[in-house]
Amino acid sequence: MIYGYIRVSSDKQTVENQRFEINNFCQREQLHIDGWIEETISGTKNYDKRELGRLLKKVQKDDLIICAELSRLGRSLFMIMEILSLCMKKECRVWTIKDNYRLGDDIQSKVLAFAFGLSAEIERNLISQRTKEALARKKAEGVQLGRPKGAKSAKEAYKLGKKEELIVRLREEGVSFNKIGKLLHVHRDTVRRFYHTFLDKKE
To answer: 167: how many CB neighbours lie within 10 A of its CB?
Structure first.
């Protein structure tokens, strides 16, 4: 299957320019679009909340996604890399027209796979470093932290396990417990208790 992906960030923009570019490209390459995905949404919105996310769930090996340029996939480098990494795992190809990018079974893709892995490791290390700095700062401020006891604590640990660093990073960026709770589908008080428990453990 060959998909044409088009994204504009506001309803004041038109999808026709991107559609025109993709159609012209397909004529030159003798390709036929089997399905179009068009959406009006900011590229900062996480891809799994967009039509693109639904497309990525259904693509299969050797499917091809064509878009005008990489920035149509997302506005941040890490989001684009995450999307391309997912496509590589599913052995789905991604081609762009303006920047002439080709993701497939070739040396360029293998180099990118290495770059993705390295970047992910760097990002994990940066998150870990920011978390340690946040914990050290909390400790230096003399914050008294209590750990919840009993079944509720165990239940919260089950819900939010392996998300400690994400929660701490979001808090460092000023995100409220309420917003974090909505993001993780739990009550804000659950996030708050878990956050303090995690800090308490790390001291």
So the answer is: 23
Cα separation, 163 vs 122, in Å, equals 18
Q: Which amino acid is at 88?
A: M
Q: What is the tens place of the pLDDT at every residue in 100-129?
A: 888 876 766 667 666 765 666 666 677 777
pLDDT digits (tens, 9 = 90+) for 17-30: 999 999 999 999 99
Considering only CA atoms, give the Rg of the chain.
Answer: 21
Distance, CA of 203 to CA of 68 (rounded, Å)? 49
User: Pairing state of beta strands 102-103 and 93-96?
Assistant: antiparallel
Asked if 97 and 26 count as a contact pair (C-beta separation under 8 A), the reply is no
> And the tokens for 107?
């040396």
Strands 102-103 vs 64-67: parallel, antiparallel or unpaired: unpaired
> 3-class DSSP state for residue 140?
helix
Taking the chain, what is the end-to-end CA distance rounded to the nearest angstrom? 53
Alpha carbon of residue 57 to chain centroid: 14
- From CA 40, how far away is CA 201, in angstroms rounded? 44
Does pTM surpass 0.90?
A: no
**pLDDT band at 145; cut points 50, 70, 90:** very low
DSSP at 149: -
